[in-house]
Amino acid sequence: MAAGSPAPHSGGGRIAGCDTPVEADHAAASGHGDASACAPKSAATKRAEYLSWDDYFMSLAFLSAQRSKDPSTQVGACIVDEDNRIVSVGYNGFPRGCSDEELPWARVADSPLDTKYMYVCHAEVNAVMNKNTASLKGARMYVALFPCNECAKIIIQSGIAEVVYLSDKYHSEDAYVASRRLFDMAGVSYRQLVPSTSRVVLDLRPDSASREDDAEGRLS
Question: Which residues are part of the catalytic machinery?
Fold first, then answer.
């Protein structure tokens, strides 16, 4: 054995922090007599699986929708400013002070007054009204469904510059044809989001909060 070469690990002694003889041999061969050679290395590059801004804000719109009491349709909206700061969220529901128990949630009834459509505020309207900033000029709205004409009016009047949506399933209906006409005339841009992920799973168990992965330092 050449002078100055690290002695191979004989297996008779255990290097602290190395769980197996193979790890200990690797530590000895590298010239380290401690756990530094066996310790997990932190990732050298940033995590690749993080959400894009678009996916993040659309996910918040979907999460907000879970607050809706509507048994048949749950829609949420999220508004962000030009610096990607969240300035409002909203979901479809009855106006403040109007009972969720007394007003109807039906979609079809003998009288229009016995359906929800006479009373419900859409998510887009509630998001605009809930804003925590003086102005929405230049802001973006994220919403699952392309806005109807009534919501389009409010969006335009609020100063929102762009609408990002997932579905335009009512594209050919008059209310939505009118929306596009209004947006085009007012200079409000709109685009359909093609998300980079189809699911965002939330784990709300206490032991899942800010837990660091032993091997790579990832938050799980």
Answer: 124
> Is the CB of residue 155 less than 8 Å from the CB of residue 163?
yes
Q: Which two tokens stand for residue 157?
A: 């009047």
pLDDT digits 0-9 by tens, 92-118:
999 999 999 999 999 999 999 999 999
Whether residue 155 contacts residue 122, with contact meaning beta carbons closer than 8 Å, is answered with: no
The phi-psi region of residue 4 (left if phi > 0; otherwise alpha if psi is between -120 and 50; otherwise beta) is: left
N-term to C-term CA, the chain: 47
Give pLDDT tens digits for 39-56: 555 568 888 888 999 999
Tokens of 155: 């969006």
Residue ranges of domains in the chain, CATH in brackets? 53-94+122-192 (3.40.140.10)
What strands, in cross-sheet order, belong to the sheet with 86-91?
86-91, 76-80, 140-145, 162-167, 189-192
pTM value is 0.75
Q: In the structure encoding, which two tokens stand for residue 93, read together? A: 């529901």
